[in-house]
């Protein structure tokens, strides 16, 4: 009798469909809550300045205007395009340095053998728990003595010395999943460690390299504290410092222009995730898995 009921058309598939509908409804509700601030910021960039805080708080503006975008783009002493170019240069160079340096160090930890390997690996992991503010003053003194203050060098050069332990650990876990038989076969053919790294490890590690590159670019693009400490001239400002320039301590802040430029500052991040999300998800999902 039970089997007959379960075999009725549509009876067995009703509950999975209901569960799927409830899950999707919950995800949509959470998604709306998360993107609501962005939608409100977009709506604020399309409102006149007089309606931002004096009118209704809904998402649909009573009067749509695009004046905040040209006003924000050309409203400072330096055009906002200059800030975009500065952030793009810093982010690209820092990303290249992060990926190259972290992959080299990770390759040494994961595939080579040297004295004190476990000690140095544990020390490297320990730096993950070291707050950035602890090293801020010594770094600033060092860069000031080198004459790097008010330049981009403090934001770029350290990335070429594998200072981000997170990316090293991420790549170590991925490299350990690559079969060592490939290394042994390459050594039998006369390959050096450097050639194994270039010809075998890197081509097989594109997902984790892409993941590290995406995260590095996003974190550098969104960095506010580093440029705030080292950069003082507006011509060298990044996007984040440019956004801060719209906030006036005297109380005359240009909020709608700030919202407009904030929306534009999210476009590169959105495009990167949109085009490289497959590599990003694959790199995170396969890190540490044996293949």
TrEMBL record:
The lineage of its organism: Bacteria, Pseudomonadati, Pseudomonadota, Alphaproteobacteria, Rhodobacterales. It is a multi-pass membrane protein. PANTHER family: ABC TRANSPORTER PERMEASE PROTEIN MG189-RELATED-RELATED (PTHR43744), ABC TRANSPORTER PERMEASE PROTEIN YESQ-RELATED (PTHR43744:SF6). Pfam families: BPD_transp_1. Belongs to the binding-protein-dependent transport system permease family. One of its GO terms (biological process) is transmembrane transport. The keyword Membrane applies. It is found in: Cell membrane. Its main location: membrane. GO terms for cellular component: plasma membrane. This is Carbohydrate ABC transporter membrane protein 2 (CUT1 family). It comes from Allosediminivita pacifica.
